[in-house]
Design a protein that fits this description.
This protein has two domains: 403 residues, Rossmann fold; 123 residues, ANL, C-terminal domain (GMP Synthetase, Chain A, domain 3, 2-Layer Sandwich), CATH 3.30.300.30. The chain contains 20 helices and 30 strands. A seven-stranded mixed beta sheet has the order 5-4-17-16-18-19-20, with helices on both faces. Strands 7-6-8-11-12 form a five-stranded parallel beta sheet, with helices on both faces. Helix 18 links the parallel strand 29 and strand 30. Helix 5 packs across helix 9, helix 7 packs across helix 8 and helix 10 crosses helix 11.
Length: 636
């Protein structure tokens, strides 16, 4: 039996038991059998959750790009590594083979070195979803530079904050980007950001939209001429397993971003292992994750996980609504995509449109469907299963975080029986605990609590860049000796996990703890509702009451709003009970979301509580304009 590839439920349980009885031996076998090491480790694991400090494969030497590229050249040199689909369907897709990727990464790495970038230097990457984004990430890893990718939709303020926090020496960007029918002046945003950044010495600029831009002499350089002159051979830097690989910023609850630091060895082993099992990838298949590489999903499951397995990974520059709402499905048919991984927020948006956009395309190549970013609600799950997978492609509802580096809870397709809204079972090596408010572990099934992890896993973030105290306080102070995820969860009769939302999304109403996720699921089953978000607000009698922000499916929904409010509360009463009814229901045009699709409930709580004096930086939101609309139409 291979530890690396789980094929059925019985095998899952056998491997899981082995991984928890002797985690060090389990991960040692996986690492030794499936990866290329320059030197083997002295010790598999050293850990102390009190400090907290975790080290995996200490003393081992490797370069992650040798595992993602070089080792595939003899057997898969001509195979497509990256399949790039541009924003405009009229533009040709690019098929970048492993051999071509090797040469392009080496050239880029040599350009970085020519500009003084060396091992340990931080490089900020602010690029659209073009091949240069993946190639620049790998080029940094090739020479041991630490990459910090910032999503190319963030404002100049958000960009400068992240550049300064990591003291980045270089920024890699492009003249601009396409987003559907629009173009965005990325170089202008970078120029504005760099007015507040003294640490940046050079800027590399890729051409994408061929716009006229300002180039600052001595600092700014066009990328292509430098690549044309660069050698296509670059020896990879030999890294320690615990050397930093990248910093990736995630929003903090206070609005201050946290630079999560991930390291080379354990991250590589875990992302490759989880990719192989959760997507059941086989050679010659085409895998597509629709995320942006600016997010952890893109790092782990567009770049490192797939390439470490020698996969063909599809990168998409555009948006699901351009040139129309059939774009995702047109790409699936065009490239015969086998695994498709996207966000529930995208599924809900597409489910609002006519089914003609789905039905006109041949989706029979799909073998596995996945969701990421938030728990998927039941209505969206059924729409996805029925209309995209046609009941033939299992849905893997994956739970994980920027901090965890890789997927922690997920069905194994064709092995784990799925239930809508349930992430199901932990991956091998992931030891979960549900904790009560007193800090005691809740044993058994049919229970709910705060979701923690009680044993290290290889891909976990090692610290917050420059602030280990914040790392300890945020993740390890709530429950002694355990990593606290910040999420609540329930465990059903067979041990399946369902994420019930952030613990700070639990509202105490008249002494009852009410999780917002089940209430939102009940609301979303109403035929007129597209999406909802529930928050608490102060109430003289109840302590807290519930405020619902609800998007209707039809912009021109003509039904009486008072009747709709009654129907929604009746739906909640039937599903959960009258205690969960909403005191206020506001119909809104949209919800404030991060670019990865997560609802910013912190902002909604402030609006519901009439505390809008300090909303923090909302420029990083996907739709900052919607905040003002919600505030203007707030219910008193």
């Amino acid at each position: 039996m291979s530890n690396y590839h789980i094929k059925n439920l019985e095998e899952y349980y056998q491997i899981y038991r082995k991984s928890t009885r002797d985690p060090e031996n389990f991960w040692s076998e996986v690492a030794e059998e499936h990866f290329l090491w320059r030197r083997k480790w002295d010790q598999v694991l050293q850990w102390d959750f009190e400090k907290p400090e975790v080290k995996w494969f200490e003393g081992a030497k490797l370069n992650i790009t040798e595992n993602c590229i070089d080792r595939h050249l003899l057997t898969k040199g001509d195979k497509t590594a990256i399949l790039w689909e541009p924003n405009d369907p009229a533009e040709d897709a690019q098929h970048i083979s492993y051999q071509e990727l090797y040469q392009r990464v080496n050239r880029f790495a040599n350009v970085l070195k020519s500009k003084g970038i060396k091992m340990g230097d931080r490089v900020c990457i602010y690029l659209p979803m073009i091949p240069e984004l993946a190639i620049s990430v790998l080029a940094c890893a090739r020479i041991g530079a630490i990459h910090s990718v910032v999503f190319a939709g963030f404002s100049s303020t958000a960009l400068s904050t992240r550049i300064n926090d990591a003291s980045c020496k270089m920024v890699i960007t492009s003249d601009g980007s396409y987003r559907g029918s629009k173009t965005i002046d990325l170089k202008g945003i970078v120029d504005e950001a760099l007015e507040k950044c003294e640490c940046v010495e050079s800027v590399l600029v890729a051409k994408r939209i061929n716009s006229d831009i300002d180039m600052k002499e001595g600092r700014d350089h066009w990328l292509q001429p430098l690549l044309d002159k660069a050698d296509d051979q670059c020896q990879p830097e030999v890294m320690d397993a615990e050397d930093p690989l990248f910093i990736l910023y995630t929003s903090g609850s206070t609005g201050t971003p946290k630079g999560m630091l991930h390291t080379c060895g354990g991250y590589m082993v875990y992302t490759a292992y989880t990719f192989k099992n959760i997507f059941q990838y086989k050679d010659q298949e085409v895998y597509w994750c629709t995320a942006d590489i600016g997010w952890i999903t893109g790092h782990s499951y567009i770049v490192y996980g797939p390439l470490a397995n020698g996969a063909t990974t599809l990168m998409f520059e555009g948006v699901p609504s351009y040139p129309d709402f059939g774009r995702f499905w047109e790409i699936v048919e065009k490239h015969k995509v086998n695994q498709f991984y996207t966000a529930p927020t995208a599924i809900r948006a597409l489910a609002k449109e006519k089914l003609d956009y789905v039905n006109k395309y041949d989706l029979s190549s799909l073998k596995v469907l996945g969701t990421v970013g938030e728990p998927i609600n039941e209505e969206a799950w059924h729409w996805y299963n029925d209309n995209v997978g046609k009941g033939q492609a299992p849905i893997v509802d994956t739970w994980w975080q920027t901090e965890t580096g890789g997927i922690m809870i997920s069905p194994i397709p064709y092995a784990t029986p799925t239930i809508p809204t349930y992430a199901t079972l932990p991956l091998p090596g992931v030891q979960l605990a549900l904790m009560d408010e007193k800090g005691e572990e809740i044993k058994g099934n049919l229970v709910s609590g705060r979701l923690c992890v009680k044993f290290p896993w290889p891909s976990m973030a090692r610290t917050i860049w420059g602030n280990h105290e914040r790392y300890r306080d945020t993740y390890f102070s709530a429950f002694k000796g355990k990593y606290f995820t910040g999420d609540g969860a329930m465990r059903d009769a067979v041990g399946y996990y369902r994420i019930t939302g952030r613990v700070d999304d639990v509202v105490i109403v008249s002494g009852h703890n009410l999780g917002t996720a089940p209430i939102e699921d009940a609301i979303n089953e109403h035929p007129a509702v597209a999406e909802s978000a529930i928050v608490g607000f102060p109430h003289e009698v109840k302590g807290n009451a519930l405020y619902g922000f609800i998007i209707l499916k039809e912009v021109g929904e003509t039904r009486d709003r008072a009747n709709l409010r009654k129907e929604i509360n009746q739906q909640i009463t039937e599903h959960i009970g009258p205690i969960a009814k909403l005191d206020k229901i506001q119909f809104v045009p949209g919800l404030p979301k991060t670019r990865s699709g997560k609802i910013m409930r912190r902002i909604l709580r402030k609006i519901a509580s009439d505390d809008t004096s300090n909303l923090g930086d909302i420029s990083t939101l996907l739709n900052p304009e919607v905040v003002r609309q919600i505030m203007d139409e707030k219910i008193d």
